Amino acid sequence: MPKRINFQLSRDEVSQLEQAIKTDKRTGVCRRATAVRLLHLGHSVPETAVLVSASEPSLYQWHARFRSHGIDGLVNQPKPVPQRKVTAEYRHRLEAALQTEPHVYGYAFAIWTRQRLVTHLANATGIWIDVSWMQQLLNQLGYVCRRPKHDVRHRQDAAAKSSAQAELEALKKTANGTSTGFSLWTKRA
Length: 189
Description:
mainly alpha; 52% helix
């Protein structure tokens, strides 16, 4: 059977709560102090949770923090700043990858996407980051996304291209300015 929590407070603690409810300007302190006071007055945890629009686990936390730290325990706690995984080496490898075509690394695709960069760098460095963080890194490094230009020059036959170019030049010379009867302009009917 779970341990039953005694929500009863001393007169000093109640007066501290009442003072905080009336005068404290810090964010959330009034609401939390009200919740702790309602628990002291005998309201149930589910009922108090509805009255102050909070979850039941939050009420237990607030009560425990008030018991251990007083009114200062009801102040918003600073959120821990996550440590960034990205190192200088990671940034260097990112820039190197962006300046190198993917097929050099043995990939079957020709265009880097954010997800492909994340996967490539995770394999190279062991550091996994979110795709949205990759976008922020690219912005910080001054890279912008643009639509790829599809190029088929690598698939062209050089001999056939030069033959066609020679034939075109020959046709231009024989035309001698004669009209083909074709115009970009037409008359309205």
